[in-house]
Specification:
Pfam families: GerE, Response_reg
Protein name: LuxR family two component transcriptional regulator
Helix content: 40-55%
Oligomer: single chain
CATH topology of the largest domain: Rossmann fold
Shape: globular
InterPro entries: CheY-like_superfamily, NreC/VraR/RcsB-like_REC, Sig_transdc_resp-reg_C-effctor, Sig_transdc_resp-reg_receiver, Tscrpt_reg_LuxR_C, WalR-like
Keywords: DNA-binding, Phosphoprotein, Transcription, Transcription regulation
Number of helices: 11
Strand order of the largest sheet: 2-1-3-4-5
CATH architecture of the largest domain: 3-Layer(aba) Sandwich
Radius of gyration: 17 Å
Organism: Stackebrandtia albiflava
Order of helices and strands: EHEHEHEHEHHHHHHH
Number of domains: 2
């Protein structure tokens, strides 16, 4: 059973999302919060698999709530998905840097919401290649924020190659095909790179790859 926490200051949206998720036999909404501070407290108490968190809320916003969850080792199994009205923007990028696994626009189709929750619960990033390109093209700083040597020096050559492919938006299966290895081996390379770089998930791995200079954003 996938346990979901909803955090949004709009009761109507929370009730709508709850209604959509509760009809699924493998998903359970365990609690609702009205702001980021309440959401973090609920996450600590209930340890949900997925936390759907609005990016703009009173008291504590979604970026800070994500940062607090990501910084708490006891919450390492909580996958944050940011909810936004506006699509991808700088706020979403900062939430990804803070540790979010991805984001959803609030007018998402019901079936896409359910799919996204399942994807996040598996630990995969909710970042399509087109979104990844937009992310790196608009919001990743140049020159690199983190010197490549200090951030990536512990990676093997194969792990670096896998991270590079992930940063271009490839799935584990696509990484496996590009590297001529099995999907399990590709997953192992990605997971080891995440561990060495202290990335919570693939979304953070993408950000690290660009901010360290391993991969560079395309010129506009």
């Amino acid at each position: 059973m996938i346990r979901v926490l909803l955090v949004d200051d709009q009761p109507l949206l929370r009730s709508g999302f709850r209604a959509l998720l509760d009809i699924e036999t493998d998903i359970e909404v365990v609690a609702e919060g009205a702001d980021g501070e309440e959401g973090v407290a609920l996450a600590r108490r209930l340890l949900p698999d997925v936390a759907l968190i609005d990016i703009r809320m009173p008291v504590v916003d979604g970026i800070e709530a994500t940062r607090r969850i990501a910084a708490d080792r006891a919450l390492s199994g909580v996958h944050v998905v940011i909810l936004t009205n506006y699509g991808f923007d700088e706020y979403v990028f900062h939430a990804l840097r803070a540790g979010a696994a991805g984001f959803l626009v609030k007018d998402i189709l019901p079936e896409d919401l359910v799919h996204a929750v399942r994807v996040a619960a598996r630990g995969d990033a909710l970042l399509a290649p087109s979104i990844t390109r937009k992310l790196i093209g608009r919001y990743v700083s140049r020159p690199p924020l983190v010197p490549a040597g200090t951030a990536l020096g512990t990676l093997t050559n194969r792990e670096r190659e896998a991270v590079t492919l992930v940063a271009h938006g490839l799935s584990n299966d696509e990484v496996a095909g590009a590297m001529a290895i099995s999907p399990m081996t590709a997953k192992t390379h990605v997971n080891r790179a995440m561990s060495k770089l202290h990335a919570r998930d693939r979304a953070q791995l993408v950000v690290i790859a660009y901010e360290s200079g391993l991969v560079t954003a395309p010129e506009a």
